[in-house]
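Bug #2210: token dump truncated for Ion transport domain-containing protein?
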Amino acid sequence: SCLTGPFEIAIFVMIFLNMVTLAFERHNMPSIYHHMLSGMNFFFATVYALEAIVKIIGLRQYYFTVLWNLFDFILVIGSIVELAAGNLIGEDGFPFPPTMLRIVRVFRIGRVLRLIKAAKGIRKLLFALIVSLPALFNIGALLSLIVFIYAILGMGLFANTAKNGAIDEMFNFDTFLSSCLILFR
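Reproduced locally. Full output below:
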């Protein structure tokens, strides 16, 4: 099959190289780096789109029966939307909400998850994490209850404390919300 061996190895190498380029992004990059990384992002999105096309041609109607292929396809669509949104913002000054672009960029991080297909150990760990999510929710609820109790207790004991040092106008025990904030601090 064309979906194993050198083809898959080449795709995994591309995913790894894409991870490396994602690690180089930072805030206030010089424009030359931004253009270079944008070009690399376009290249990787094209490679992923070509991979999806090759698999769709090879597997036909069975392509969408495999969940990993469906995940890959959603990532490809997300990458295309990200590139289109970036071009609309960059060239035409189209009033596109910046928050939407940040949400679409999450798809770029999803590409890294494609490596999980190859590593059975990571797949087992991810499955264990998914199975333990209900227990983590219970732990989170218990921690929230503890914070709630101590916030109420702090309001009762320290509500009128003088504001100096660590206790200021923002972080104090005067209100429930500010009590929770100071407990997280």
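Output looks complete on our side. The mean pLDDT is 83. Marking as cannot-reproduce; reopen if the truncation happens again.
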